[in-house]
Amino acid sequence: MIERIFHPIGQGAFYSERHNNFNIVYDCGNWKDTLEANKVVERAFKKDEVIDILFISHFDYDHVNKIKTLNEHTKIKKVVMPLLHDEEKTLLINLYKALDFQIWTLIENPQEFFGQETQIITVQESEDNERPINDNITIDLENLKTTNIQSGSILRKTFNSYKWVFIPYNYLCNSRKIELEKLLRSSGFDVEKLKNDSKYTIDEIVSRRTEIKKIYTKVKGNINQNSMLLYSGINCLYKDCKQEAFCFDCPYRYFRCYAEFHHIRWYRMVKQRHRVSCIYTGDTDLNKVKIKSIFKFFWESVGTIQIPHHGDLKSFDKSILDDKYYWCPISVGEKNSYGHPSYKLISEIVVQNSYPILVTEDLNSGFVECIRF
């Protein structure tokens, strides 16, 4: 059995999957950096339990500030994260130093942050935000020795009775970079020094922390150019299913149950029970990244889509939904100041016969999927 958990951490993200004795985590943080969130992270795993892969979508504060807690409480074997170029890395470090966000150490030297026993793997940027992923780049996780992989690489894991794949997809959003640099320049900051001089924060801008914070919260989406999606599911390229109709690669051998929405008409679940795969989106702008095109050959098995950016309407594209009934978890703070989630977005999900699930800091709001085979 597989357990997929959307943990109640509030305005942030913390998701995990348990495949027997194989554990993965996607993001770990919340905006207010609360002690309660520490407890949620610590109680998600036993002390010194192994996290086989930690996937980091991007380096926004609310998605990564509890990774330190996770790292201290568990043993993380592999970290898969977006590749940061030198200028982007220096810019983020400068801004986070100015904001007193201690996660800048994670960006500056991830190997030192996690320890020498953890394998750090970076994912290159994709050059095409619509091109479908195929099976040309498939890597068995047991043989993953490299420190850098292409966006869309299929990371395959074989269990006793089924096969599973994880597909990190890293895209570049230049519009966020342009907007951020424009705001910094208009406030009188030297953008070139921010991108190239790691001491610029200390020398010039720590005293202007309030201005930096306003810019940080003003940039649409997040200040990171990169945001890495993750497909977690069965390896169901159409041709594989056609050729191996009765093997465990075929989705019709799988079904799932849920710990939420018991009032929903069950025939809908039965009808769609084979769609056990999930797409984690982080803070991705779904208007710019066409996930139905990218994951075209896997889409028939997708039944869960994490709604990006805490239910922000501007990051959502309702065309990803059709008549197949999707579960749509949304991580959001109960008293956030951003107006998340958008009720227009909630309405669009419901109209498409799918189900929005608000995962807040309320411990009763966590969402669990159980996948049996």
TrEMBL record:
Residues 18-100 form the Metallo-beta-lactamase domain. It holds the Pfam family Lactamase_B. Gene3D superfamilies: Ribonuclease Z/Hydroxyacylglutathione hydrolase-like. Coiled coil: none annotated. This is Metallo-beta-lactamase domain-containing protein. It comes from Bathymodiolus thermophilus thioautotrophic gill symbiont.
